[in-house]
Design brief:
The strands form two sheets. The protein has a six-stranded mixed beta sheet with strand order 1-2-3-4-6-9, sandwiched between helices. Strands 5-7-8 form a three-stranded mixed beta sheet. The protein starts with a strand and ends in a 7-residue tail after the last helix. β1 and β2 (12-18) form a beta hairpin. The relative contact order is 0.14. The protein has one domain (2-179, 197-207): 2-enoyl-CoA Hydratase, Chain A, domain 1. It is 50% helix and 17% strand. It has helices at residues 27-42, 64-70, 72-91, 107-114, 139-142, 148-157, 163-169, 181-193, 197-209, 215-232, 234-240; strands spanning 2-9, 12-18, 48-53, 96-100, 103-105, 117-121, 125-127, 160-162, 174-176. It contains eleven helices and nine strands. It is an alpha/beta fold. Keywords: Lipid metabolism, Lyase. One of its GO terms (molecular function) is lyase activity. This is Enoyl-CoA hydratase.
Protein backbone atom coordinates (compact mmCIF):
# COMPACT_ATOMS: atom_id res chain seq x y z
CA UNK A 1 0.00 0.00 0.00
CA UNK A 2 1.25 3.48 -0.82
CA UNK A 3 3.08 5.20 -3.67
CA UNK A 4 5.95 3.58 -5.54
CA UNK A 5 8.22 4.58 -8.41
CA UNK A 6 9.86 2.27 -10.93
CA UNK A 7 11.96 2.87 -14.03
CA UNK A 8 10.82 0.15 -16.39
CA UNK A 9 12.77 1.43 -19.34
CA UNK A 10 15.21 4.19 -20.17
CA UNK A 11 13.77 7.68 -19.90
CA UNK A 12 10.45 6.69 -18.33
CA UNK A 13 9.48 6.65 -14.65
CA UNK A 14 6.25 4.95 -13.57
CA UNK A 15 4.61 6.31 -10.42
CA UNK A 16 2.02 3.85 -9.09
CA UNK A 17 -0.62 4.54 -6.45
CA UNK A 18 -2.07 1.73 -4.37
CA UNK A 19 -4.44 2.50 -1.49
CA UNK A 20 -6.97 -0.34 -1.36
CA UNK A 21 -9.81 -0.87 -1.63
CA UNK A 22 -10.67 2.09 -3.89
CA UNK A 23 -7.63 4.40 -3.93
CA UNK A 24 -9.27 7.03 -1.75
CA UNK A 25 -6.09 8.70 -0.52
CA UNK A 26 -5.45 9.93 3.02
CA UNK A 27 -3.66 13.22 3.55
CA UNK A 28 -0.27 11.50 3.84
CA UNK A 29 -0.97 9.62 0.61
CA UNK A 30 -1.55 12.80 -1.38
CA UNK A 31 1.69 14.29 -0.05
CA UNK A 32 3.56 11.08 -0.88
CA UNK A 33 2.19 11.16 -4.42
CA UNK A 34 3.27 14.79 -4.80
CA UNK A 35 6.80 14.00 -3.69
CA UNK A 36 7.07 10.94 -5.95
CA UNK A 37 6.03 12.90 -9.04
CA UNK A 38 8.33 15.81 -8.20
CA UNK A 39 11.25 13.47 -7.56
CA UNK A 40 10.70 11.68 -10.86
CA UNK A 41 10.64 15.01 -12.68
CA UNK A 42 13.87 16.12 -11.01
CA UNK A 43 15.73 13.01 -12.19
CA UNK A 44 17.85 14.14 -15.18
CA UNK A 45 17.51 10.68 -16.72
CA UNK A 46 13.71 10.84 -16.79
CA UNK A 47 11.99 12.36 -19.82
CA UNK A 48 8.42 11.21 -19.19
CA UNK A 49 6.42 10.14 -16.13
CA UNK A 50 3.57 7.64 -16.31
CA UNK A 51 1.04 7.99 -13.49
CA UNK A 52 -0.91 4.81 -12.86
CA UNK A 53 -2.75 2.96 -10.11
CA UNK A 54 -3.41 -0.52 -8.82
CA UNK A 55 -6.73 -2.05 -7.90
CA UNK A 56 -10.34 -1.46 -8.88
CA UNK A 57 -9.96 2.09 -10.14
CA UNK A 58 -7.52 4.91 -10.77
CA UNK A 59 -8.60 7.21 -7.94
CA UNK A 60 -11.66 7.78 -5.75
CA UNK A 61 -10.57 11.12 -4.31
CA UNK A 62 -9.89 11.89 -0.66
CA UNK A 63 -10.43 9.53 2.26
CA UNK A 64 -13.81 10.75 3.54
CA UNK A 65 -13.52 8.57 6.65
CA UNK A 66 -10.37 10.44 7.65
CA UNK A 67 -12.21 13.76 7.37
CA UNK A 68 -15.19 12.43 9.33
CA UNK A 69 -12.85 11.20 12.04
CA UNK A 70 -10.51 14.19 12.34
CA UNK A 71 -12.80 17.04 11.28
CA UNK A 72 -11.45 20.41 10.21
CA UNK A 73 -7.81 19.47 10.76
CA UNK A 74 -8.17 16.66 8.22
CA UNK A 75 -10.10 18.92 5.85
CA UNK A 76 -7.32 21.51 5.96
CA UNK A 77 -4.76 18.75 5.48
CA UNK A 78 -6.65 17.34 2.51
CA UNK A 79 -6.94 20.79 0.94
CA UNK A 80 -3.19 21.36 1.14
CA UNK A 81 -2.27 17.80 0.20
CA UNK A 82 -4.50 17.69 -2.88
CA UNK A 83 -3.23 21.09 -3.99
CA UNK A 84 0.34 19.77 -3.67
CA UNK A 85 -0.37 16.59 -5.62
CA UNK A 86 -2.23 18.36 -8.42
CA UNK A 87 0.49 21.01 -8.67
CA UNK A 88 3.21 18.34 -8.70
CA UNK A 89 1.64 16.80 -11.80
CA UNK A 90 1.17 20.17 -13.48
CA UNK A 91 4.63 21.49 -12.54
CA UNK A 92 6.48 18.22 -13.20
CA UNK A 93 9.50 19.19 -15.27
CA UNK A 94 8.71 16.54 -17.88
CA UNK A 95 5.45 15.42 -19.51
CA UNK A 96 3.11 13.29 -17.38
CA UNK A 97 0.98 10.56 -18.99
CA UNK A 98 -1.97 9.45 -16.87
CA UNK A 99 -3.00 5.81 -17.39
CA UNK A 100 -6.59 5.62 -16.15
CA UNK A 101 -8.72 2.56 -15.50
CA UNK A 102 -12.04 2.09 -13.75
CA UNK A 103 -13.23 5.09 -11.79
CA UNK A 104 -11.47 8.47 -11.82
CA UNK A 105 -13.41 10.60 -9.35
CA UNK A 106 -12.90 13.70 -7.22
CA UNK A 107 -9.20 14.11 -6.65
CA UNK A 108 -8.55 11.78 -9.56
CA UNK A 109 -9.92 14.50 -11.83
CA UNK A 110 -7.43 16.91 -10.30
CA UNK A 111 -4.59 14.59 -11.24
CA UNK A 112 -5.63 13.76 -14.80
CA UNK A 113 -6.85 17.29 -15.49
CA UNK A 114 -3.31 18.50 -14.79
CA UNK A 115 -1.59 15.66 -16.67
CA UNK A 116 -0.18 16.30 -20.13
CA UNK A 117 -1.78 13.30 -21.83
CA UNK A 118 -4.42 10.76 -20.78
CA UNK A 119 -4.62 7.16 -21.93
CA UNK A 120 -7.67 5.33 -20.62
CA UNK A 121 -9.12 1.84 -20.59
CA UNK A 122 -12.56 1.21 -22.04
CA UNK A 123 -14.08 0.86 -18.57
CA UNK A 124 -12.80 4.22 -17.31
CA UNK A 125 -15.29 6.84 -16.10
CA UNK A 126 -14.55 10.39 -15.03
CA UNK A 127 -16.53 12.61 -12.71
CA UNK A 128 -16.89 14.83 -9.67
CA UNK A 129 -19.36 13.42 -7.12
CA UNK A 130 -18.43 16.29 -4.81
CA UNK A 131 -21.97 17.58 -4.27
CA UNK A 132 -23.03 14.10 -3.17
CA UNK A 133 -20.16 13.99 -0.69
CA UNK A 134 -20.56 17.39 0.95
CA UNK A 135 -17.57 18.84 -0.87
CA UNK A 136 -16.56 21.18 -3.67
CA UNK A 137 -13.49 21.50 -5.86
CA UNK A 138 -11.65 20.28 -8.98
CA UNK A 139 -14.04 21.98 -11.40
CA UNK A 140 -10.85 23.75 -12.44
CA UNK A 141 -9.52 20.44 -13.69
CA UNK A 142 -12.75 19.03 -15.11
CA UNK A 143 -12.95 22.19 -17.22
CA UNK A 144 -9.68 21.09 -18.86
CA UNK A 145 -11.33 17.84 -19.97
CA UNK A 146 -14.74 18.88 -21.28
CA UNK A 147 -16.44 22.03 -22.62
CA UNK A 148 -17.71 24.58 -20.12
CA UNK A 149 -21.42 23.75 -20.18
CA UNK A 150 -20.83 20.02 -20.03
CA UNK A 151 -18.50 20.57 -17.08
CA UNK A 152 -21.26 22.42 -15.24
CA UNK A 153 -23.86 19.75 -16.01
CA UNK A 154 -21.53 16.99 -14.81
CA UNK A 155 -20.66 18.98 -11.69
CA UNK A 156 -24.25 19.78 -10.72
CA UNK A 157 -25.54 16.25 -11.36
CA UNK A 158 -22.50 14.28 -10.13
CA UNK A 159 -22.73 12.20 -13.28
CA UNK A 160 -19.71 10.66 -14.94
CA UNK A 161 -18.39 10.73 -18.50
CA UNK A 162 -16.90 7.68 -20.18
CA UNK A 163 -13.43 7.40 -21.64
CA UNK A 164 -15.01 7.21 -25.10
CA UNK A 165 -16.89 10.48 -24.48
CA UNK A 166 -13.73 12.26 -23.37
CA UNK A 167 -11.90 10.84 -26.36
CA UNK A 168 -14.56 12.42 -28.57
CA UNK A 169 -13.87 15.76 -26.87
CA UNK A 170 -10.15 15.34 -27.51
CA UNK A 171 -9.04 15.22 -23.88
CA UNK A 172 -8.29 11.49 -23.82
CA UNK A 173 -5.56 10.55 -26.28
CA UNK A 174 -6.35 6.85 -26.61
CA UNK A 175 -8.91 4.35 -25.33
CA UNK A 176 -7.81 0.72 -25.12
CA UNK A 177 -9.00 -2.55 -23.55
CA UNK A 178 -8.21 -2.79 -19.83
CA UNK A 179 -5.49 -5.38 -20.34
CA UNK A 180 -3.66 -3.17 -22.83
CA UNK A 181 -3.63 0.04 -20.77
CA UNK A 182 -0.16 -0.18 -19.29
CA UNK A 183 1.42 -1.15 -22.60
CA UNK A 184 -0.36 1.70 -24.40
CA UNK A 185 0.77 4.25 -21.82
CA UNK A 186 4.36 3.01 -21.96
CA UNK A 187 4.36 3.06 -25.75
CA UNK A 188 3.31 6.71 -25.73
CA UNK A 189 5.83 7.52 -22.98
CA UNK A 190 8.55 5.84 -25.03
CA UNK A 191 7.71 8.03 -28.02
CA UNK A 192 7.85 11.15 -25.85
CA UNK A 193 11.06 10.06 -24.09
CA UNK A 194 12.78 9.63 -27.44
CA UNK A 195 12.92 13.44 -27.75
CA UNK A 196 15.79 15.53 -26.43
CA UNK A 197 15.45 15.73 -22.65
CA UNK A 198 16.41 19.37 -22.31
CA UNK A 199 14.08 20.41 -25.10
CA UNK A 200 11.20 18.44 -23.55
CA UNK A 201 11.64 20.33 -20.28
CA UNK A 202 11.63 23.63 -22.12
CA UNK A 203 8.51 22.57 -24.01
CA UNK A 204 6.70 21.66 -20.79
CA UNK A 205 7.54 25.03 -19.25
CA UNK A 206 6.47 26.85 -22.40
CA UNK A 207 3.12 25.06 -22.64
CA UNK A 208 2.36 25.72 -18.98
CA UNK A 209 3.24 29.35 -19.51
CA UNK A 210 0.60 29.86 -22.21
CA UNK A 211 -2.27 28.20 -20.31
CA UNK A 212 -5.23 30.62 -20.22
CA UNK A 213 -6.12 29.72 -16.60
CA UNK A 214 -3.80 29.50 -13.61
CA UNK A 215 -4.88 26.08 -12.36
CA UNK A 216 -3.17 26.47 -8.99
CA UNK A 217 -4.85 29.76 -8.11
CA UNK A 218 -8.29 28.74 -9.42
CA UNK A 219 -8.23 25.46 -7.50
CA UNK A 220 -7.25 27.21 -4.27
CA UNK A 221 -10.17 29.60 -4.84
CA UNK A 222 -12.51 26.60 -5.08
CA UNK A 223 -11.08 25.14 -1.88
CA UNK A 224 -12.20 28.20 0.05
CA UNK A 225 -15.79 27.22 -0.65
CA UNK A 226 -15.05 23.62 0.32
CA UNK A 227 -13.88 24.80 3.71
CA UNK A 228 -16.86 27.14 4.05
CA UNK A 229 -19.17 24.17 3.43
CA UNK A 230 -17.37 22.31 6.18
CA UNK A 231 -17.58 25.14 8.70
CA UNK A 232 -21.26 25.79 8.00
CA UNK A 233 -22.21 22.19 8.72
CA UNK A 234 -23.71 21.54 5.29
CA UNK A 235 -20.86 19.20 4.36
CA UNK A 236 -21.50 16.93 7.35
CA UNK A 237 -25.24 16.98 6.68
CA UNK A 238 -24.81 15.91 3.06
CA UNK A 239 -22.21 13.24 3.86
CA UNK A 240 -24.47 11.78 6.55
CA UNK A 241 -27.22 11.27 3.95
CA UNK A 242 -24.89 10.39 1.06
CA UNK A 243 -26.50 13.25 -0.92
CA UNK A 244 -29.80 11.39 -1.37
CA UNK A 245 -33.00 13.31 -1.84
CA UNK A 246 -34.94 13.67 1.37
CA UNK A 247 -31.95 12.97 3.60
Amino acid sequence: MGVSTSCVEKGTAVVTVGFPPVNALPVAGWFALAEAVRAAGRDPEVRCVVLTAEGRGFNAGVDIKEIQKDGNSALIGANHACAEAFAAVYDCAVPVVAAVHGFCLGGGIGLVGNADVIVASEDAVFGLPELDRGALGAATHLARLVPQHLMRALYYTSRTATAAELHAHGSVWQVVPRGELRAAALTLAREIAAKDGQLLRLAKAALNGIDPVDVRRSYRFEQGFTFEAGLSGVADRVRAGFGKEGA
